[in-house]
Amino acid sequence: MATRQMLFSRFDVSIDSEHLLARVFGEKIDVKKHSPVVEVKAATYTDLKVGQDKNGDWVVQCVVDV
Predict the structure, then answer these.
(1) Using the 8-state DSSP alphabet, how is residue 37 labeled?
(2) Per-residue pLDDT tens listing for the chain (66 residues)
(3) From CA 37, how far away is CA 11, in angstroms rounded?
(4) Strand partners of residue 32
């Protein structure tokens, strides 16, 4: 957010046998629309979970420091 003055809201991720491919979608920060209060400083390994759900989709979860 601080570097590019953008917020990202959609992530299309695919995994093949050797690569992770991702497209990230966002927009420039608009203070009236987004009302930013805090910024994520880092992702942590706390409660990190990586796995497939019942539909076979990959799900990643982690805790972030703000």
Answers:
(1) -
(2) 778 889 988 999 888 889 999 999 999 999 889 888 888 888 898 999 999 999 998 888 999 998
(3) 22
(4) none
